[in-house]
Amino acid sequence: MHLPLVKLSKSYYHVNAKKRFTSSPLNVPSRTKRVFIGLIFDWLLILVMFGISQWFFLVPKPPIAYFRLDDPDYMRPVIPQIISSSTAGILSGGVPLIILLILELLFFWDKWNVYHLVTGHATSVAFSLLFTSLFWITIGSHLGLRPSFLTQCAPDLNKTIPGQIYYTVDICTQPLKKFDFQGFPSGHSSNAFAGWVFFVLYLNSKMKPWSGTAYVWKGLVLTLPLALATWVALTRVRDFRHFPFQIFIGSLIGIASAIFAYRLNFVVFGWFLGPGDGNDHIPARYQYLAAKENSLEESTRQLPSNGYVVEV
């Protein structure tokens, strides 16, 4: 079986055109010497970030929460959530990765392209989870109480003290879980945008929507995943799990994680994301190889016939 299964025009396949690169004198591709050690180290760090995120979620206690008993913002009803955490993980993490792998097998197959695709997506989600969970335990209940907090707390009004405005969970009659204090930022929002923004960045580089073709369908393909991520985030307002500002900050974390992960794994010429016209989708591995070749060519030019290096 020959990959890709569906052959596109040559304009889509520039991953081996290493002469397109220009190497900076500060770019020393030391990882090309022991490439697999570097790749293993990358994945160890990704797994460590996932592990730390899970530990943050389960173990450390959030800061003490101080709240008013007459605050209407925390009196929303407790209703079933529209998208559970497990469903959100599949929808925001698994689904975009599976779709990208299918597209890769069908149209764009290249081994380093696949590697950086998987690594980049994992890095995006890992960074998003790490910083989201870090805010849960550091800021936590100061901004992390949920709209239904007082309803779940069911405070004992007989314990109120005249003149006292703020109370702690000691006044609650119902047990509260650690999850109830982890509203800031929204994990659903950060994961949704981390997964789907990386998805859009990848397709943007492959589809080349800014090349003057003016295909409306390309715009739809690139915006519908963002609409899906937005819907996932906004369901948390609808089911009273988050305030809008918690969703907004979570979304920013996810977007920043996706952009950072994409820039780590794919070459982008030009400011920010590049022009999207065909030279912003090259896997970073080819950048290392091209830089190494340029270094070897420069060394060869500086080597005279007697075998000694001449300084220039």
UniProtKB/TrEMBL annotation:
Gene Ontology biological process terms from the UniProt entry: phospholipid dephosphorylation; phospholipid metabolic process
Pfam families: PAP2 (PF01569)
Predominant location: membrane
Keywords linked to the UniProt accession: Membrane, Transmembrane, Transmembrane helix
InterPro entries: PAP-like, PAP2/HPO, PAP2/HPO_sf
Membrane topology listed for this record: Multi-pass membrane protein
Transmembrane segments: 35-58, 78-103, 115-139, 215-237, 243-262
GO cellular component: membrane
Cell location: Membrane
Domain Phosphatidic acid phosphatase type 2/haloperoxidase: 125-262
UniProt-recorded Gene Ontology molecular function terms: phosphatidate phosphatase activity
Keyword Disulfide bond: no
Family, per entry: Belongs to the PA-phosphatase related phosphoesterase family.
Record protein name field: 6047_t:CDS:1
Organism the protein comes from: Paraglomus brasilianum
